[in-house]
Fold this protein.
Amino acid sequence: MRIFLSGPSGVGKSTIIREILKKNQDIVLSVSYTTRPPRRGETEGKDYFFVSRETFETMIRDNAFLEWAHVHDHLYGTSLAWLESQEHQGRHILFDIDVQGVRQAQEQETPGWFIFIIPPTLEELSNRLNKRGTEDEQTLNTRLNNARQELMAWERYNYLVVNDTIEQAIHDIQSIIDACRCSRQEAIGRLPWLQKIA
Ligand code: ADP
Ligand code: 5GP
């Protein structure tokens, strides 16, 4: 099962994902490749694979990505090899990718569930990004300017979740995941005998 989460920078994706991964031991976060420098506290191979632009461009030429995009002045992409190795081990994958990446995945008809996280207001989004304190002023402005554009992509998603209180947002996303597990497409894989009934 592939679950795609998107939303503007600062909306709370990483915070929500941390809690969802604790509650769902069979789900792993897709570790993307990026040319963005690591933030304080980020770990190579856990948060991202941090690579040079040259390495990233070689990977593009080698068709190593399921999707890749230019986001807030850096390149980000999902490695096909990484994804296949995780799915081979029977893991469900949670993707934290932007709206351009979702568009590419949908164009390739990648099966999956698409969840969009929305801030209660644009002002609150700005407060959260400010409070996180990880971006300089210029990067912060780029991210806020991109937010409006990103929010216009809501129609691409199966589910819209407002992250007003973190508890409610986590509860809503867990409910969606639980429902996806029981969807016909996902559940039938666990019921081979049912498919064989003539
Ligand atoms: P993203 O991964 O989408 O960029 P983060 O998870 O880093 O966003 O969250 C941005 C900031 O907002 C963090 O400081 C986080 O603690 C805070 N935050 C997340 N969700 C909420 C919420 N529901 N209410 C208030 N603050 C929140
Ligand atoms: P950040 O720099 O805050 O970690 O991430 C910035 C944006 O890049 C977020 O919107 C996140 O969803 C997106 N992102 C992270 N990894 C990928 C990826 O592999 N592909 C795409 N398309 N977007 C990604």
The first helix runs from residue 13 to 23. Strands lie at 2-6, 27-29, 32-34, 48-50, 65-71, 74-79, 92-96, 113-118, 159-162.
